[in-house]
Amino acid sequence: MSNLLTAFLKARWRFKHWNPEKIRKFQIHQARKIIQYAVTNSKFYHSYYNNKNLNDVFQLPLIDKQIMMKEFTNFNTAGLTREECLNFCLKTEETRDFSQKYKNYIIGMSTGTSGNRGIEMVTKKEAGIMQTTFIARFPIPLRGRFHLAFILRVFSPGFNVNVGKFKMSYVSPMDTLENIINELNQLQPTALSAPPSMLKILAEAKQDNKLQITPNLVVSYAEVLSPDTEQFLEKIFETKILEVYKATEGMLAQSCKAGRLHINEDISIVEIVDENDDHVPPGTPGHVIVTDLVKRTTPIIRYRLNDIVTIDPDPAPCPCGSQFRVIKQIQGRADDMFLGKRADTKQSQFIFGDYIRRAIVSTSDHIREYRAIQENPQKIIIDLELIPEFQTPEEQSIFNNELPNKISQLFKKHKCETPDVEINFKAITHDFSLKLRRIIRNFDETAYF
């Protein structure tokens, strides 16, 4: 039996049969092995964990993207420098030839919502575990071919799979929309995966009969999938929209056959914490801390993401049968949250981006695209692109009359001073080399509070 087949069967078994006690025991055991390896083989961790209790996994100091990239030469265990890895990534980005390895390592570059570059480096074995886990839990039809067309800005080892009847075809989002549509029409994939911003554009093309594919599965990743976009995609593609929650730091979660987003508990530890890094209970939004249980080349140990996530508090088992935790909502990045100024204490108050989104989309059904930018605690700019046939003074007056009041009421509910709201009606374009951000805060909390 091959190693990949063994990994595949183990991934399926764990997902279906492991209970929380078994999950936690396995996680701590694997984390301690990764930690010991990192201290022994990474100059960074050898110094960073000096005089620390290595057995106390959840008390080790945190790292983040800034630390990892700054220390990357000493951080990785392969002996490669940050500069040579970045140069290799930039070269493959130019040629779009992702089949090449660098000194037997698979190296890719990510660009987050902030535009900051990250490096993902894995061995063939590590990539194989990620890939087989992805396949084992993906709701692949038992019969017939399965051809997934995936649209990625940058390469990631977890999305480069061709195993058996499972085939993946890469489509560059940097090409023209016409060429992307033509390529998809030629491929005729049975499944389509892309960021929700791209999926929405493709759904509009399908609505106009330009895109002529009928995928059985549509998978969203890399950006927050808002409920209004999800509903639109399901309507056009006539199928349930599944999600993959993957970062450079690991394959964190993916949808099961019931459509619920399960954490991959056997290949990563996901902690949800508050501003003081204390764990919060399910149902409470918090920051994400990740420990990757697979990668030793770039050990990811208690790595703080900028995402805000809520774990589903419902104790009832998922219909799919798995007891792996379920993510109820990915609220977005921490700086996708608006900050209000409390009227009573004058301190800062987080206002989740989802509340801002609801205020906007509930005003009218005729919005094609939107963007809300908080310049400071007293000023919000909202850009709106309306559906062409509704770009009228009458429609604009609805937003001008109703939306500022909705935003004011929202801030009042959070006991905050109300900001000024500026509304602009304009065409909104999206740079597909970056993740889409519809809710943006353009200032740091320390600048005002």
Please name the fourth-level CATH homologous superfamily of the largest domain: ANL, N-terminal domain
The share of residues in helices is: 25-40%
The stretches of 5 or more residues where confidence is low (pLDDT under 50) are none
Number of helices: 12
Quickly give the structural class.
alpha/beta
Supply the number of structural domains.
2
The chain-level mean pLDDT equals: 88
Per CATH, which architecture of the largest domain? 3-Layer(aba) Sandwich
Roughly how many Å is the radius of gyration?
Answer: 22 Å
- Biggest sheet features: 12 strands, mixed
Q: What is the CATH C-level name of the largest domain?
A: Alpha Beta
Strand order of the largest sheet: 4-5-3-6-7-8-9-10-14-13-12-11
- Please give the alpha-carbon distance between the first and last residues: 60 Å
Assign the CATH topology of the largest domain. Answer: Rossmann fold
Number of strands: 20
Shape: globular
Instruction: Quote the beta fraction.
Output: 25-35%
In short:
This protein has 449 residues and is of the alpha/beta class. 32% of the residues lie in helices and 26% in strands.
